[in-house]
Structure formats: C-alpha cells, structure tokens
Write a structure and sequence with these properties.
The chain is α/β, with parallel strands linked by helices. It starts with a helix and ends with a helix. Helix content is 39%, strand content 22%. Strand 10 and strand 11 form a beta hairpin. The longest helix has 25 residues. Bound molecules: zinc ion.
Length: 325
Amino acid sequence: MMSPEANGRSAPLLVGLDIGGTKIEALLVDQQLNVWAQARRATDVSHPDNLVVSAIAAIDDVLAQAHADRAQLTGIGIGIPGQVDAVAGDVSLAVNLNLKTYPLGKVMSTRVGVPTFVENDLNIAAVGVYRWLQQRESVANVVYLSIGTGVAAGVVLNGRLYRGSHGMAGEIGHITVDLNGPPCNCGARGCLETYVAGPAIVRQALGSVTFDCPDEEVHAGHVYQAAQTGDEAAQAVVQNVSRHLSLAIQTLVMLYDVDKVVLGGGVAQTGDAFLSPILDELVQLRAQAPLFETMLPADIVTLLPAGYNPGAWGAIYLAKEAVWD
Ligand SMILES: [Zn+2]
C-alpha cells in the first residue's frame, strides 16, 4: 500500500467496486495504479436504493482508510451481476440483487458527483484477468471461466472485451448438457451449471460421500477434500465435474480460438485438487484427435491466484480507460 502522504492529498484517485449478492469489494488506486486501500462490505439487497447506500459506504471506507476525500475521486468503475447496458449504466435481471431494472450508473454518479461506469461482473472480471495475464505474457485472446455459485465466462478478443449483442457472450453456464438433466435456476433443464457449480457439486455428493465436518455446512471444497483423502463416491463426483469442465473448456476454445482459459471463482479456489483432475481429462481429450492436440496445449489452462480480485481490478481498468486514457 502507498502512503497517502507520499502522494499528496490532491492525487486523483479511482475506485473499483465488485458488487456481489452477499458482499461488495472496493479498491482505491492512483494514476500509477498503486493500491491505496481496499475494503469489503455486506451488500444490502433489500431495495435498490439501499444497495446504492452500501456501495457508497464501501467507497467512503476506502477513502477513509487512505485519508483521502471524495474530491480526489475522478471515476468509479462497477462490476455487477445481471444484464448491463454499459452505455447507459442501467442494470437489469440481477435476480440475486433484487434489481429488475435500475439506472445504477446515473444514480451513483449523481450521488457521489463522479463519472460512473458499469459493466456485467463476468465481463469486467475478464478484463481484470486479461490485464493480470498481460503482466506475465503477451496474449491477445483470453477466456475467464468462473466456477462458483454460478458458472459463466467472460471473453476478451484481440485485447478487447467481447460483449456480444446482449452483453451475454460467454454465458456458458446455461448451455444445455442434458435435455433431461436436473432443473436449473434459469428455468431450463440440464444446464452446465447444474453439474459443475458449487451447489451442484454438493448436491451430487450428499447422501453418498462421508464428510469430515459434521457441524459445518458442506461446500464444494469439502467434496474435493473427501476425494483427496480417498472417498470413492467423492472421487466419482469430482471426475464427473472435471469431465464436464474439460468439455466446457474445449467448447470455449473451439468457439473463440483463445490463447488462454483462466479458471477462477469460489470453487476454483480449492486450488490443485480442483485443477489437476481437469488437466487429466484434457490429456484424454488431446489423445482423441490431432485437432484437440493443437487446440488444447497443456499450458492453455491457468488458475487465477486466490488473492487477485479480477472484478475490482477490471472495474478500475474500465474507469481508467474512460477517464484517464
Ligand atoms: Zn440454466
């Protein structure tokens, strides 16, 4: 973290907000992208106006931490779930946030007095992931596949975010894997998400896997743990999940012909126990055809480090491009 004294109290700053169903992560940076402060707040989803109150509170948290004030803010970037009209800053269909249609960009820029830029959370996270990758290697085409409570991908092509006609490019969680599969939150059946999202992994394990955590609510990490300690039922679930994910990776690569598929999200934070069975499945896919050997090289998949918040950083880059670049 930079000391505010070293930079002066008049330094222009940007804030990036990653708004999720349960928490808001805020990141405050200066023009050189030095981190001045970061904070986390609970999301108030009782009413859209209260969501704005909690978002502004998160901004005031980071400003207070950095001994800076609102006058130094030159832009706000926001990543939020749902369908986003990035030009108008309107958010719709954000079911988990109790938002049907809401002019979030306009409300925030009026209330804080600073230009505000809004983008879908996965799209913006893909930008954050792309910038993170750029610091390590030069790549033009990248997909970020997030596996958490839901499953979705964000796509960067030729260094630019690819949104599609409805801002929904990469919504791979709702491609149909089995027409007769389990019901999905979206109303359809057998979506990819009903096999590989965190709750789906738990659902497949309950009843057959013996867990070591009687007092805790079971989450996907526990299933991976049980598989690693030799529980055969857990191993079968992990293999099924990994097979579906390897096919999802293959689908994304064949559709977008990318250099990298970066995996992230809550389930991916299980780390190597999560990644290595997926890599095993990819080895088998590669053996099937020379085409797959070319398109799915061993290093095409990378795990995002747990400490990097691609949503908050993507929001910073979104605002930076609009305000400073
Ligand atoms: Zn679905």
